[in-house]
Amino acid sequence: MPDEVRQYREQLEDRTMLVRKAKVVPMEAIYQKSQTVCGIPIPEKMEESQKFPTPIFTPSTKAEQGAHDENISPEKAAQLIGKDLFDRIHAASLQLYMAAAEYAESCGLILADTKFEFGLVPSTSVGQDELILVDEVLTPDSSRYWPRDHYEPGKGQPSFDKQYVRNALTSAGYRKGLESGPNGNGEGWAIDDTVIEGTRKRYKEAEQMLKSLHFRNFI
Predict the structure, then answer these.
(1) Distance between CA 79 and CA 95 in Å, rounded?
(2) What is the largest CA-CA distance in the chain?
(3) pLDDT more than 90, % of the chain
(4) Going along the chain, which residue ranges are E strands?
């Protein structure tokens, strides 16, 4: 930490991050292990939730606040941000996903899919800008975790992610076009306290499994 804030260590420790302002790349890097994917060739006769032979990279646009991200092909993503930057993100995100999936597996979880967001900061040396991660990484809110012991291809899986909230909203009538509320007039959607508590418990259970005792040994 900078010298001027070290005097506040007791107040800041374990609750503060030192960050850098980055130019956000307008693309999300999404890796999937077991999903249905449009626009990308996948093996025939795959079952729901079946594992792909290798993880696939399914980028999307990074929309402005209030707008919707759009799933795009890798080719379109390369056109959007430039092939050189796309290749750097593709390689970095694959390395991140493979390491994270291996670690999750050791904790009893399957990392079915996740997304990464990247930004650029000026390099300390002459050359291209430095590529860094921005936004949350590998949280239950940005990833899809399945319990390994209950995994069974051919059907939907129990999960530790926000699919639980999506299911509750869908059963209440939520659909595309009614994002602002049941009547479309901006009142929003109410979420039952039991759904909130159920989501919190799922997120907490995933966190506890991922924070197993061998975490430091792994990294």
Answers:
(1) 22
(2) 62
(3) 40
(4) 23-32, 56-57, 60-61, 109-121, 130-134, 143-147
Coil vs helix vs strand at 121: strand
Contacts of 60 (CB under 8 A, 6+ apart): 27, 28, 30, 69, 70, 71, 72, 115
Kindly list the distances between the CA atom of residue 41 and the CA atoms of 38, 58, 141, in Å, as whole numbers in the listed order.
8, 11, 27
Q: Which parts of 33-173 are beta strand (E)?
A: 56-57, 60-61, 109-121, 130-134, 143-147
pLDDT per residue over 134-158, tens digit each? Answer: 989 999 889 999 999 999 999 988 8
d(CA 26, CA 134): 12
pLDDT tens per residue across span 22-70: 999 999 888 776 554 656 778 888 888 998 888 988 899 887 765 677 8
Helix, coil or strand: residue 197 = helix
Query: Is the distance from CB of 124 to CB of 98 less than 8 angstroms?
Result: no
Distances in Å between the Cα of 148 and the Cα atoms of 44, 121, 129 are 24, 38, 39
What is residue 93's predicted lDDT score, i.e. its pLDDT?
94
Give, in order, the Cα–Cα distances in Å from 149 to each of 9, 106, 154, 213: 42, 12, 15, 19
- Gyration radius from the chain CA atoms: 20
Instruction: Using the predicted structure, report yes or no on whether residue 19 has a pLDDT greater than 70.
Output: yes
* Chain-centre distance for alpha carbon 131: 18
| pLDDT tens-digit map of 184-218 | 788 889 899 999 999 999 999 998 898 875 544 54
